[in-house]
Amino acid sequence: MEKTMRAGYEGTGPGAITPDGCAVELYARLPVGDEPDVIAAAAPTGARILELGCGVGRMTHALLERGFEVTAVDESAEMLERVRGARTICGPIERLDLGETFDVVLLASFLVHAGDADVRRGMLRTCVRHLAEGGCVLIQREGADFHTNVPRERADPAGFTVRIVSVEPVGDGVDSVHAEYVFPDATWTQTFLSRPLTPERFGTALAEEGLRVDRYLTEDGIWVRAVPADRV
């Protein structure tokens, strides 16, 4: 069955492409970085984690290995087919309502920068809706120069090259970002919409949904621990 792509999103390359332009085969090849260590350091031992936008489970599997209980959510069934050892839920993050709560809600992959502000609001509401008392939301933000240091490329030690080819304004404070992933045997591209968020605008976006920054977890400001705004 043919998928309906989200407006402004596109992907090319071998294998299945998700509605937001992500290539399943590409994400199955990408290595795990230091993200699981950042998350593990900020989460209680053995915490129940709701991972929103899990993809093929790169972080899911690493978190399971560290002793966490993970419920993994993605809107792509093809992505979820690659996830092992975790409970999986297929559906849009912004409309998720499981009727239960978790110690940690994880919103990674720069999803908080969704070009559609209503989608961003829906995702943050999902985070709040599923947060247990005393729990926290861990959010991955874009780097400070993501939209300005363009074009740029990075050669990964695993043997492929990532290029941010262009970032073009499309109105209402949103940019269209075009990326390439070049491997020796295949190339994938992704075009997606991203809304830059300064720390001030990020704080405002959280406040709209009843959250606040508790602390930044990394010096570059990319990883953030957020909690309910009314928590002392």
H/E topology pattern: EHHEHEHEEHEEEEEHEE
How confident overall, as mean pLDDT?
96
In percent, how helical is the residue content? 10-25%
Beta strand count: 12
Largest sheet: 7 strands, mixed
Widest sheet: strand ordering:
4-3-2-5-6-12-11
Shape: globular
Distance N terminus to C terminus?
49 Å
- Low-confidence stretches are none
Number of helices: 6
Beta content comes to: 25-35%
Radius of gyration using CA atoms only: 17 Å
> What class would the helix/strand composition place it in?
alpha/beta
What's the arrangement of secondary structure elements?
Blueprint: E1 10-12, H1 24-29, H2 35-42, E2 48-52, H3 58-65, E3 69-74, H4 77-80, E4 87-90, E5 102-107, H5 117-129, E6 131-140, E7 152-156, E8 160-171, E9 174-182, E10 187-194, H6 199-208, E11 211-216, E12 223-228
Parallel strand pairs: 2-3, 2-5, 3-4, 5-6
Antiparallel strand pairs: 1-10, 6-12, 7-8, 8-9, 9-10, 11-12
Walkthrough of the structure:
By secondary structure, this protein is an alpha/beta fold. The chain has helices at 24-29, 35-42, 58-65, 77-80, 117-129, 199-208, and strands spanning 10-12, 48-52, 69-74, 87-90, 102-107, 131-140, 152-156, 160-171, 174-182, 187-194, 211-216, 223-228. It has a 7-stranded mixed β-sheet, with helices on both faces. The chain is globular and about 50 Å long.
